[in-house]
Write a structure and sequence with these properties.
Number of domains: 1
Shape: globular
Largest sheet: none
Number of strands: 0
Order of helices and strands: HHHH
Length: about 120
């Protein structure tokens, strides 16, 4: 249980950092409002990712390239859902949301290689 909690907190912080980097340096349309909105958005992203992504990875095992595309689109869909339900967090239009999904996938991949 301690290992799971540690992994979740690290993932949450990595997602918060990824959303911050995307909003400040990469995509101008992404805005998180204040630090509380950033932490809540990254918490929601982490919870959804940790519950649904393992299932998506298993289902996409036979098709690795399609699976990668599905995971990127899943990230974009989760970011869009968070921006829809959370007033302080916006991702802009469809292009910026998909690009945010790509960017968060790349940042998470690099963070998992480092950690």
């Amino acid at each position: 249980m301690k290992r799971f909690l540690q992994k979740f907190i690290i993932g949450w912080l990595v997602n918060a950092l990824a959303i911050y980097v995307i909003a400040v340096y990469v995509i101008d349309a992404v805005d998180y409002g204040d630090i509380a909105s950033l932490l809540i958005a990254s918490l929601a992203f982490s919870v959804v990712s940790m519950t649904v992504k393992p299932l998506l990875k298993v289902l996409s095992l036979p098709f690795p390239i399609v699976g990668l595309l599905v995971l990127v689109l899943f990230n974009a869909l989760v970011l869009f859902g968070i921006s829809y339900f959370m007033p302080g967090f916006t991702t802009g239009g469809i292009e910026s949301t998909v690009m945010s999904g790509v960017a968060i996938s790349v940042i998470n991949f690099i963070a998992h290689l480092i950690i």
